[in-house]
Amino acid sequence: MNALSPSVDVNATPMVRFEAVGKTFGGTGGHPAFTALTGVDYTVQRGAIAGIIGRSGAGKSTLIRLVNGLEVPSAGKVFVDGVDVAALDAAGLRALRREVGMIFQHFNLLSSRTAFDNVALPLEIAGVGADAIRAKVLPLLDLVGLSDKAGRYPAELSGGQKQRVGIARALATSPKLLLSDEATSALDPETTQSILELLKRINADLGLTVLLITHEMEVVKTVASDVAVIDGGRIVEQGRTFDVFTRPQHETTRSLLSAASGGAKLPEWISADLKPAPQPGDRALVRLVFFGETAFQPLTARLVAEIGPDVNILAGAIDEIAGEPFGSLVVSYPAEPAVLERAARFYAETGLTTEVIGYGV
Ligand SMILES: Nc1ncnc2c1ncn2[C@@H]1O[C@H](COP(=O)(O)OP(=O)(O)OP(=O)(O)O)[C@@H](O)[C@H]1O
């Protein structure tokens, strides 16, 4: 159980399971082979909102396209709700795609169809009759807050409204899994938040499992109960979002975190001049992470009392990851053995998580 996805059931068959999955493109007809994914072991629990984060070209889209059979693995197996996707015949694949909805960065709406008719499309394709379509589409438009826009064309809708139509369309066939491919990347921050809130509500109210891929830390931080970090076609780190982001183990996670807007961010003029090792007279710049309850405790006063008066606070923020509070502070103090020793003792006593960012003046 967790705060963000109350319906997670870790004992049930996972909604998605990757077992040693690899994907190589090309390698035939004189085209050089390109390995997009290697050795991916990954599980999405039923009822979760799972995020996969990585930079452009990391392999995110390839990974998500393997889930609904738009790509076939070159190695390993992909299971959706216990079913091996590669073993499905054409009818099986059609059935799978009714059970797996998808939303896209650029919404992919048909411009010649109204909002209503866009949402109705998957039902028309499935051969559902007009009355049943109406009975399904109107509540969906209501769910996404667009009851009054049923007759509007995509060109008459804002980006956020278009994505709401996209979400309603993805839900039309009552899927058990929703795939989101950078669904908020074309939206402004405020609209992004409202779409993420909608995804959270759908997850909680309908028990729908959500697998989203994004390059935006903010998206994962806001909605995902679990996260996997992908780099160069490999999953380099995965776990509960709070754990991964507050105690990042891999360099890629750290650099994605430090590039993110939230948390304690150093001004460019300080971060640009940092050195990996101290020179005489340098100061150590250290990021301190405070978890949960302790995020709000007045540790700064103790910091000065324990380490010494020459502690500067360079940046600080209290943030929330996956619904849990955490704070971070970037402090500096002289990189002298006596000071560093006092600091290390203080961190060990208080259980603070720390990371030396570098050394500078
Ligand atoms: N059909 C294909 N043929 C050849 N190479 C491909 C194909 N599809 C993807 N690739 C390559 O695989 C790598 C991973 O691409 P993918 O689209 O999965 O990354 P991504 O993390 O989703 O990045 P982006 O956010 O930029 O789409 C890229 O180097 C891409 O060029």
TrEMBL record:
Keywords: Amino-acid transport, ATP-binding, Cell membrane, Membrane, Nucleotide-binding, Translocase, Transport. Residues 16-257 form the ABC transporter domain. One of its GO terms (biological process) is amino acid transport. One of its GO terms (molecular function) is ATP binding. Gene3D superfamilies: 3.30.70.260, P-loop containing nucleotide triphosphate hydrolases. CDD domains: ABC_MetN_methionine_transporter. One of its GO terms (cellular component) is plasma membrane. Belongs to the ABC transporter superfamily. Part of the ABC transporter FtsEX involved in cellular division. Important for assembly or stability of the septal ring. This is Cell division ATP-binding protein FtsE. It comes from Allorhizobium borbori. The lineage of its organism: Bacteria, Pseudomonadati, Pseudomonadota, Alphaproteobacteria, Hyphomicrobiales.
